[in-house]
Amino acid sequence: MVDQIKRSAMKDERLAIKDEMWEKPALDAWHQYSLWGAKAMTETFVLIHGAWHGAWCWAGVRTPLEAAGHRAYALDLPSHGESRFERSKVTLQVYADSVIKFIAEHDLRNVVLAGHSMGGLVISQVAQRIPKRMKRVIFLTAMVMEDGERPVDLSLEPNRPLAGLANSRPDRSIPIDALEERFRAAYIQDASKDLQDYVLSALTPQPLAPLSEPVPMKDFYRLRLPTSYLICEDDISMMPQFMWHPHFSGRLRSPSTRSIKCGHESMFTAPKQTAQALIELAKS
Predict the structure, then answer these.
(1) Measured between alpha carbons, how far is 52 from 127 in angstroms, rounded to an integer?
(2) What pLDDT is stored for residue 30 in this prediction?
(3) I want to staple 210 with a disulfide (CB 3.0 to 4.6 A). Which of 37, 47, 92, 255 is the partner?
(4) If you ran DSSP here, which 8-state letter would residue 145 be given?
(5) Residue 69: how many CB atoms within 10 A of its CB?
(6) H-helix or E-strand containing 6?
(7) Cis before 207 (ω within 30)
(8) What was the pLDDT predicted at 64?
(9) How far is C-alpha 164 from the geometric centre of its chain's CA atoms?
(10) In a 3-state reduction of DSSP, which class is residue 206?
(11) Phi/psi at 256 (nearest 5 deg)?
(12) Whole-angstrom distance, CA of residue 69 vs CA of residue 67
C-alpha cells in the first residue's frame, strides 16, 4: 500500500513537471505579448512650456497622462523656472540645445513632442535636428513660423513697447508685470482671480532674443513629420489677424487637430481635457 502511494505521488510529480514544462512557455509568451502590447500603447511625451513659464506649468497635465500609463516629461528651458541660465544670453538655439540634450540624456525615442505658445518655436527646431527621435510634433495653441519669420513682427503694436522695455534692461527680458492686465484679460480670462494670481506669481521674465530672431524652418517643412494642432477655442491672446487657429495651424501640412473649450492657459484651466487631447493626437 505504501509503495502504491509512493508510485502515485511520483506519477503526480512527473505530471506536474510535464504540465509546468508545457504551461510555462505559454505563460511567458502571453506575458511577453502583454508587455509588448502595453509598451506599444504607452506614449512618451516631452512637454515644452511657453514664454514666462516653466516646467511647473505642466503639473496638472502630467498627472492624468501618467495615470493613463504614459511617460510625461517637462523641463525648464534655460533661464526659466529653476534654471539659473543668464537671461541675456538666451537664444532660440539655446532653448533647442537644452531640449535635445534632455532627450539624449534620457535616451528618449518615439517622442511625442508638444509645445505650448512660444514653445512652438522650440519644438520645430528640435524636431528638425533630431527627427529620428520624433514620433509626432504637437502644437498646443502654439506658434508655427514661416522660414525666416520673427515672432516679434506678428503683432507689432503691442510688442513694440515690450521690446523697447526689454532692450533697456540688463537681462534683455520682458517682465510679466508689463502685461499683467493683458494677461488676465486675454490669456487666462477663464480662470478665477485666485488662479490668475497664482500663475502670475510664478511667471518669470521672458528673454527677448528668442522672440526677435528669424526662425529657420526650411528643414522642418522638408521633414514631413506627423504634426498636430491642439486648438483652444476661447484663446483671444493674439490680435485677430494672427489668431492661433487658423493662422498658425494652417501652415502645417495636413495636421490632425483637436479642440478644447478654454483660453490660452489650458494647462491651468483645462488640464484633464488637455491631457486627453494630447493622448488622442499622439495616436492619430
Answers:
(1) 22
(2) 36
(3) 92
(4) P
(5) 11
(6) helix 2-41
(7) no
(8) 98
(9) 30
(10) strand
(11) -80, 150
(12) 5
Q: 153: which residues sit within 8 A by CB, 6+ positions away?
A: none
Q: Are 73 and 47 in contact (CB under 8 A)?
A: yes
Q: H or E stretch including 135?
A: strand 134-140
From 114, 113, 117, 55, select the one nearest 80 (Cα to Cα).
Answer: 55
In the block, residue with C-alpha cell 544670453: 89
Helices (H), 70-183: 92-105, 119-129, 156-167, 180-182
Of 178, 74, 160, the closest CA to residue 116 belongs to: 74
The SS3 assignment for 130 reads coil
Location of C-alpha cell 509626432: 136
Q: Cβ contacts of residue 237 below 8 Å, gap of 6+? A: 186, 187, 244, 263, 264
Cα(266)–Cα(272) distance, integer angstroms? 9
pLDDT in tens, the chain (284 residues): 434 434 444 444 443 333 333 333 433 443 443 334 445 579 999 999 999 999 999 999 999 999 999 999 999 999 999 999 999 999 999 999 999 999 999 999 999 999 999 999 999 999 999 999 999 999 999 999 999 999 988 764 566 788 889 999 999 999 999 999 999 999 999 999 999 999 999 999 999 999 999 999 999 999 989 999 999 999 999 887 788 999 999 999 999 999 999 999 999 999 999 999 999 999 98
pTM here is 0.85
Sheet holding 227-232, edge to edge: 71-74, 44-48, 111-116, 134-140, 227-232, 256-260
- What sign does the CA torsion over 211, 225, 232, 76 have? negative
Give 136's contacts (C-beta < 8 A, 6+ positions apart).
112, 113, 225, 226, 227, 228, 281, 282, 284
